[in-house]
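Message: A physicist's question: would you kindly supply an amino acid chain plus fold tokens?
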Amino acid sequence: MSGLVLKLAPKERVLVNGAVIENGDRRSRLSIVTPDANILRLRDAIHPEDANTPVRRVCYAAQLVLTGDIDAKEDRLAMLRRIEELSQVFTDPDSRNSLAEATDAILNDNHYRCLKALRTLLPREERLLAIRPS
């Protein structure tokens, strides 16, 4: 059986196709076997006011597709443009791999995988933004 396996901490919440599901008092595992289910771990969710950097804005847009607030097909071109803009800044091989994975995920309507790939850029972006010219 393939698919996504979620390991949930006690009382952890996850959004599955628009429904918030809360885990019980013990750790558990969920296997999501539906290939195109929209899943968002709520502890990883970016709040609108925190979407204040280029990578966070693209992550937030992918997140909105997962929550059902944006139609994936209508937003596809905009997402690809945003990822292309990021590729102008993130030129190292690891970042390029993450951006290529995010692009491939968008083209295959897998916004969860896109979000996961883009989140790997957050620490790099944080380091870049911490460097201030004096």
